[in-house]
Amino acid sequence: MKIILSRKGLDSSAGGKPSPILSNGQILSIPIPTSDKNSPHRYRDVSVNNINASDLLSIVGAKKLHANTTCHFDPLLSLNIGLFGQAGNAQRELDNLGVGEGDLFLFFGWFRDFYSNKKTDCHHIFGWLQVDQVIKGTAEIKKFCEFYKILHPHACSDEHRFKYNTLFVSDQKSMLKSLNIDIKSHGLFARTNNKLILTETGRTRSNWHMPEKYFSPSLNPKLFETRLKWSTQKSNRICCTGYGQEFVMDSHRNPSIIDWARDLFLNSEIVK
Question: Is 232 or 246 the better-scoring residue by pLDDT?
Fold first, then answer.
């Protein structure tokens, strides 16, 4: 099994603002804006944990975005079926690494606690999807979404819009069998906690500190299949800078990542 850390939501280049951590600890990932007129969603259409995304825009100070701005609402993790679309070079990379059925996406993004005095920024895990089915090509993705009456950005363009267009699906009744726990195979984490934060305390958001109980440069010398590397061989630090949406870890090379992921779920509150 592979575990993929997948960067999603507002960032410095798309939206220019972080997603919020609210005063009650709720974490709410705001989807990125898009110029695609065929997008099926505007911010006014999107609700995260029963809060409208257009209301969140004012909280984070995204003055260039408004309720009628089109957005790329993906992944979709609050429906009975979980969906995540990928395309282009990012998907080709996932194909080359053999990402598919049984693998687990952990979605993270740029978050800020807007209600604390420090207003600290961090990379924060906010949701997940275990892959039960992979659908290839825009035509097949459209058929799938039409059958289930689901609006999804990767199903709403012409067939040549997305190269390598792919939809990862988590089935309606599937559980996290890859981690051997009785939790739905896709969903959202409800509130912040230290286990979901990748960023090292007191440092900028791209400086990660992996938990020593499950990770170390000596135990996991080749932790990531793509781009990310240990900062040094004497610490558990990783610098997550530059481009890249997905960072793939292989449990065959790094069996401790399964225990780490299980720990995340067993000690975090999830959205029911």
Answer: 246
What residues contact 62, with CB distance under 8 A and at least 6 apart? 10, 15, 16, 17, 30
Give whole-number Cα distances, 244 to 163, 186, 265, in Å. 17, 22, 25
- CB atoms under 10 Å from CB of 117, counted, come to 6
Cβ-based neighbour number of residue 68 at 10 Å: 10
Model confidence pTM above 0.90 = yes
Q: Are the CB atoms for 29 and 69 separated by under 8 Å? A: no
In Å, how far are 41, 47, 64, 128, 156 from 58, measured between CA atoms? 18, 14, 10, 26, 28
Q: Nearest-CA neighbor of 231 among 214, 219, 217, 244?
A: 217
**Of 187, 192, 41, nearest in space to 111 by CA:** 192
The per-residue pLDDT for range 210-241, each reduced to its tens digit, is 999 999 998 899 899 988 989 887 789 999 87
pLDDT at position 72: 93
Place of tokens 């399964």: 258
**How many Cβ atoms sit within 10 Å of the Cβ of residue 181?**
12
